[in-house]
Specification:
Elements (H helix, E strand, L loop, with lengths): L1 H12 L1 H13 L8 H35 L4 H22 L2 H9 L1 H16 L12 H5 L6
Helix pairs in contact: 1-2, 3-4, 3-6
Length: about 150
């Protein structure tokens, strides 16, 4: 019981040491010594952060695809910049996209699109942007596709 209290105390006072001790306990199968409460919280936060990260990358790709396709006034000056950003964000997203994270994006696709549509409208003052995403997830992830 003392080891659990010590590890729980470490969580508040020395996070890095808490991580190292938790890893050591798990590797050595010292499951009675694991600070499950904080470990579960950390794993939930990790999952939430990963979902937030891939959502953000997807938003960036869609944002630049919309600019590329619909902002005719700025396209001559910015098309290459937007295309390069699309490539960069796609590479980042595709690099770490697991089946679980892909399912998360598919399940939340319409929400993700509608949540940032206001941003693009405000930035560009365009009135021709579609209310529903005009692209499929497959198109968005395809490194060779542009509208």
């Amino acid at each position: 019981m003392t080891a659990i209290i010590d590890i729980k105390t470490l969580y508040e006072s020395n996070y890095l040491q808490w991580l190292e001790e938790t890893i050591k306990c798990l590797k050595n199968r010292q499951l009675a010594d694991v600070d499950y409460e904080n470990l579960i919280e950390e794993l939930q936060d990790l999952a939430k952060n990963e979902k937030r990260r891939v959502r953000s990358l997807l938003e960036q790709i869609i944002r630049h695809l919309l600019l590329y396709q619909y902002w005719d006034l700025e396209k001559p000056r910015n098309a290459n910049h937007w295309a390069a950003k699309i490539i960069s964000f796609r590479n980042q997203l595709n690099e770490d996209l697991s089946a679980n994270l892909r399912n998360h994006l598919e399940d939340n696709f319409n929400i993700i699109y509608s949540n940032f549509l206001d941003y693009v409208n405000a930035k560009t003052q365009l009135t021709n942007l579609p209310e529903l995403c005009p692209y499929t997830l497959e198109q968005i992830l395809d490194k060779n596709w542009l509208p």
